[in-house]
């Protein structure tokens, strides 16, 4: 724009210079007859004044300078965008925008391991598989367990055989004692031997049960129905429930998640927690599917606050079952029925959250307000987050144009250009 103005003015100056030369030559031609005419000197006195071209040239140069300064000033102004501070006359009309972010968490999940240390011989599941409760998911090497069971069963058989023989002897001694053919001491000795044989059988039975349990423990089963999300062990690896995970020893076979137990865990600001209650309806939107609204219900408010963040945790039940809903997904939740406690109507102000430059407390901050084409820095006191934006308690008034997304180079009194798009 400035370059075109310079060209136009340069052409005009060149034209005026040519006109001055023509006028100067005309002045050099003197007609003696006209010079002697009455009033000739007065009519041509103006020729002794500064030339019209010189005056116009100076005026054009001044215009050029002013245009350049104006263009430079416009180009140096930062471009900003502004939005109005809005108002409402009802406590509930402002309506807290109880939007909170969190993550989907399965309340029922388990990393399944074996009860004994052993080498994996087969893994019967993979990631994404659906398993039922008590379904076999892996087997360990059972050679030693089977050997131990065989020995225990053999010992039990021998103990039962000895008990059968001992019972015949004891029965005979009992009859002889009844006929007073033997002494009481002999009968007591026979009874002690018989009781010892019965104890041996009980011990052998317990050994068999233990060996059978060890054999059963080589088979790893699903504790509940769900989906396998992690497969941690492969055939040939050693698993141990007491391992710290070092070396080549695995601590688990897989991780199973009960998808029906998925919930959203989120944090709500302390000053909004009184506005919600268990059983309240909510809508959930996954970060992965922002246009998909999932119904939910506020299940519980965690009875503890986070001092550092000033929030209270909530648990929101997910009412829809869908394979796209996965554990640890990021999500946002909005509570539909939240409303502020009603009192006398008070005019509330709200403005875009992006307009506020908060201080360390988060309760106060500053904004830039448009005053014509200049910025005015205002200190503001902040209230709650609402559906209309950030509530403002003081510092601005309704209708003020506040700068959104202010940059670090803005300052009080600065001239700016406003982008209204």
Going by helix content, strand content and strand pairing, the class is alpha+beta
Rg is 48 Å
Number of strands: 25
**Overall number of structural domains:** 5
List the total number of helices. Answer: 7
Helical content class: 25-40%
The CATH topology of the largest domain is what?
conserved putative lor/sdh protein from methanococcus maripaludis s2 fold
Highest CATH level, the class of the largest domain: Mainly Beta
What does the overall shape look like? elongated
Q: State the major sheet.
A: 6 strands, antiparallel
**Terminal Cα separation, in Å?**
23 Å
Q: CATH architecture of the largest domain, please?
A: Beta Barrel
* Spatial strand arrangement across the major sheet: 3-19-23-22-21-20
Q: Which stretches of 5+ consecutive residues score pLDDT under 50?
A: 45-50, 69-74, 338-346
Strand fraction: 25-35%
Quick overview:
With 421 residues, the protein is an alpha+beta fold.
């Amino acid at each position: 724009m400035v370059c075109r103005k310079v060209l136009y003015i340069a052409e005009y100056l060149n034209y005026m210079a040519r006109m001055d030369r023509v006028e100067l030559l005309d002045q050099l031609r003197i007609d003696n007859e006209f010079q002697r005419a009455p009033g000739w000197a007065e009519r041509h006195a103006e020729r002794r004044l500064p030339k019209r071209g010189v005056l116009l040239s100076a005026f054009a140069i001044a215009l050029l300078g002013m245009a350049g300064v104006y263009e430079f000033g416009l180009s140096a102004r930062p471009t900003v965008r502004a939005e109005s501070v809005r108002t409402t006359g009802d406590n509930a009309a402002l309506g807290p925008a109880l939007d909170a972010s969190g993550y989907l968490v399965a309340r029922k999940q388990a990393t399944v391991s074996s009860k004994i240390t052993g080498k994996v011989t087969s893994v019967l599941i993979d990631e994404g598989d659906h398993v039922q409760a008590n379904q076999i998911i892996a087997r360990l090497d059972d050679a030693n367990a089977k050997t131990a069971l065989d020995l225990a069963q053999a010992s039990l058989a021998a103990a039962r055989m000895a008990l059968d023989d001992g019972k015949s002897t004891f029965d005979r001694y009992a009859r002889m004692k009844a006929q007073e053919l033997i002494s009481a001491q002999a009968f007591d000795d026979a009874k002690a031997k018989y009781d010892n044989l019965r104890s041996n059988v009980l011990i052998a039975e317990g050994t068999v049960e233990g060996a059978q349990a060890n054999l059963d423990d080589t088979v790893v089963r699903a504790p509940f129905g769900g989906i396998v999300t992690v497969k941690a062990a492969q055939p040939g690896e050693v698993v141990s429930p007491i391992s710290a995970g070092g070396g080549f020893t695995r601590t688990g076979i897989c991780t199973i998640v009960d998808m029906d137990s998925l919930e959203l865990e989120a944090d709500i600001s302390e000053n909004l927690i009184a506005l919600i209650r268990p059983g309240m309806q909510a809508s959930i939107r996954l970060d992965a599917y922002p246009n998909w609204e999932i119904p939910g219900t506020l299940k519980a408010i965690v009875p503890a606050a986070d001092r550092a963040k000033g929030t209270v945790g909530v648990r929101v039940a997910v009412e829809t079952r869908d394979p796209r809903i996965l554990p640890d997904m990021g999500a946002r939740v909005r509570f539909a029925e939240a409303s502020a406690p009603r009192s006398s109507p008070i005019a509330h102000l709200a403005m875009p959250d992006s307009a506020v430059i908060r201080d360390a407390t988060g309760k106060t901050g500053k904004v830039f307000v448009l005053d014509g084409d200049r910025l005015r820095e205002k200190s503001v006191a902040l209230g709650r987050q609402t559906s209309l934006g950030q509530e403002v308690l003081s510092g601005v008034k309704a209708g003020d144009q506040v700068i959104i997304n202010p940059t670090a180079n803005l300052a009080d009194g600065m001239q700016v250009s406003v982008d209204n798009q």
